[in-house]
Structure formats: C-alpha cells, structure tokens
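Notebook, bench 3.
Goal today: get a predicted structure for 50S ribosomal protein L28 from Labeo rohita so we can plan the truncation constructs. The sequence was checked against the plasmid map this morning, with no discrepancies at the termini. Length recorded as 225 residues. Pasting the sequence as submitted so the record is complete.
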Amino acid sequence: MSTGPDHVHCVQCNITYDKASRLTSSFFIYLSVEDQIKNLLKIPGIADELVQRQTETPPSVSDICDGFLYQKALSGSDTPPRTLTLTFSCDGVPVFKKSPCSIWPLLCTINELPLKMRQDNVLLCGLWFGDEKPHMRTFLKPFVDECVELEDSGFTWENDKGVSINTKVIPLVLMSDSVARPLIQNFKQFNGKYGCSYCLHKGKLVEKGRGSTSSSAIRNKLMNL
C-alpha cells in the first residue's frame, strides 16, 4: 500500500519503506490468483475448452489429467469448471550479466485447459526482485493464504449464459529445479549434509572432474530426470 510518491507501506511487515533507500534492494509484488482466473474465464470460449476429468487412467497417457496420481488426488471432487487445479513454479532469473540482482517469478497454469491454451494463458502471481534469494516464507505467504481460501471456499463467477458457478482451486503440482526446491521446502540445499529431499542419507563427497560434489546432489539430479 503506497503512502506517497517516495514511500510504500508493507501491510505484512507493518513498515514504511523509502523507495530510494539502498536498504530496500529486495521487494516483491503479488497478483491475485482469483482475479486472474475470473478474468480468464470471462474470455469467450475459455470455459468451454476446460477438459473434463477422466474417471480412470486411459491406455495412452498424454497429459497430467490422464495420470493416475492426478485422478487419485481429485477423486470425489467436482469436474471442471467447479474444481480447477494449478501447476505452479518459481525460479530465479538474472536481470543483468554483471549484476547480483535477479527476479523470481511465481507462475501458475490451469491443468484443465488444453495444452496450447494452457501455455498461452500463464498466470503471473508474484514477482520477487533483489540482490539475494527470496525469503520464501514472506514471498509465498500471500499465495499460500489465497490458495487455502480458494480450496476451502472457492469463488463465484458468472458464465456467458448468466449462470453463477462456484469454483474451487487446488494447487496440485509444484515444478522447480534442484536450486529453488529446497528454498520453497524450507530445506537444506541439495549439496549439503542431509540435503536429499527423497531420503534420510546424509550424503558424502565424491570426486567429480577436477573437484568434488555431494552424492546427495547427484541423487537429486538423477531423481529429476
């Protein structure tokens, strides 16, 4: 919330920051998931393109909606558009070649949309900018809070026929690499002791090229293949 042209007040921290201050080199913005999905569903034809959920895994699996785990997680839920699921991702991108600053976008896609339409309608829900990695408990808090509300109560919107529909939204899948994943999980990095997110082995250093790496790091990379 802004308090003037040169200051901004953070409602989460309850602190007013000077925009020109070097002490505020890291900041983020958040965009409502609900508002973006509502706007997307208002586009003519979008709601009609929502893929109806399968009741059993078909012989040929070509997308997430065909998968056994997807169907198991959504068993007992209403079909689209009354229940939608999200795949979300977060990763860092350097802004300039010789700058320590980077941006970390928080992106979402609706799994029930056809693949091409899904790729053309990516939702930007958050954006972190700074010279250090995001503080995930701060950066992801608005997203987590809104997702809890959307899964419990959903939101109401009106289709092109004037029918009011209550839609619930479930964040189902997280996509991230081995660097971003431990930050999101509040977990030790993959190359540290007990850094494997799949087992309880503490790992050990092994020779690799001219140096060494953690065996838990190798295991994590293999699990990502």
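The mean pLDDT is 84. The radius of gyration is 21 Å.
Flagging this for group meeting.
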